[in-house]
C-alpha cells in the first residue's frame, strides 16, 4: 500500500511540474473602436476567430462604442491588469501620446489596426490597415471614367458628401480623395455635406437633412464614406420617389455583402473595398514577435473596387 501511494505521489508531483513548465496563453487586449458598421462587426469577428480557442492566446476584447476617451480608460485598465499585448483600433487620430507612453513604460507592445494616429511612431510597434487616401482616389477615378462612359452631358455635376466619424483617418483619407477630385474638376460642385458617423441611421438622417435643405432634383452624385451610410442614403432617396443608382450615382466604401447586393441590383454604382480581415495579420505579427522577429512598421491590406462589371466575382465568396 505504501508503495502504491509513493508511486501516486510521484506521479502527482510530475504532473504539477509538467503543468508548471507549460506555456501560458498570452493575453491580448483588443481595444475595438465600436460596432457602428457591418465592416466593424466583420473586423471584430476576424479577431475573435484568429485569437479563438487553441490559438495560444486569450483575447480580451472591449467594444468602446465610438469613444476615444473610453478607449484610453480601457487601455489603462488593461495595463493595470498586466496584459501581454495591446491591439488598438483607434476611433480618431488625435489624443494618444500620453497613454501610449504609459504602455511603453509598462513594456507592453502596442499594435495599431484599421485607423491611424497622429502620435510619434516609436510609441507603437506597427500598424495594419487600409490606405484611405488611395481608396478616395480610386472612387474619384471611377467617377471620372464612369461619367465619360455614360457620355454625361451636364455642364456641372453636383455632389453630396456623407462623411464618416470626424477626425478618423478613414474619414480624412476618403475626404481628401474627394477634395482632390473637386480641385481637379472645376465642373464638379459640392452641393452639400453632412456627417453620418459611419452608421446606417447616421447616413439616413444626414441625407434627409440635405434633401430637406437643398431638395433632391439637383443632386447627381452621393459620395458616402461607407456602406452603412450609403444604405441609409439609398433609403432617404427612395422616399423622394427618385431611383438611387439611376437618377443619382451612388459611391460607397467597404464592399460588404449587403452593399454588394445593391451594386448587383444597380442601386449602388461603385463600392471601393475596405478590407476588415485584420485578425490573422495581427496574430501573425504577435507570433513573429514571440519568436523575436520584428514586424514591418506599416502593413497595408489588399483591396479592390467593385461595380456592375465585376461584382459577381466577389459576391459568391463574400462572407461579411
Ligand atoms: O475605419 C474603417 C471604417 O470604419 C469603415 O469603412 C467603416 O465602415 C467603419 O466603421
Automatic annotation (TrEMBL):
One GO cellular component, as annotated: cell envelope
Matching SUPFAM superfamilies: Periplasmic binding protein-like I (SSF53822)
InterPro entries xref list: Peripla_BP_I (IPR028082), SBP_2_dom (IPR025997)
Pfam families: Peripla_BP_4
Keywords for the protein's UniProt record, in alphabetical order: Signal, Sugar transport, Transport
PROSITE patterns reported in the protein's UniProt record: PROKAR_LIPOPROTEIN
Main location: other
Example GO molecular function: carbohydrate binding
Localization (cell): Cell envelope
Domain Periplasmic binding protein: from-to ranges: 28-269
Family statement: Belongs to the bacterial solute-binding protein 2 family.
Stated name of the protein: LacI family transcriptional regulator
Lineage: Bacteria, Pseudomonadati, Spirochaetota, Spirochaetia, Spirochaetales
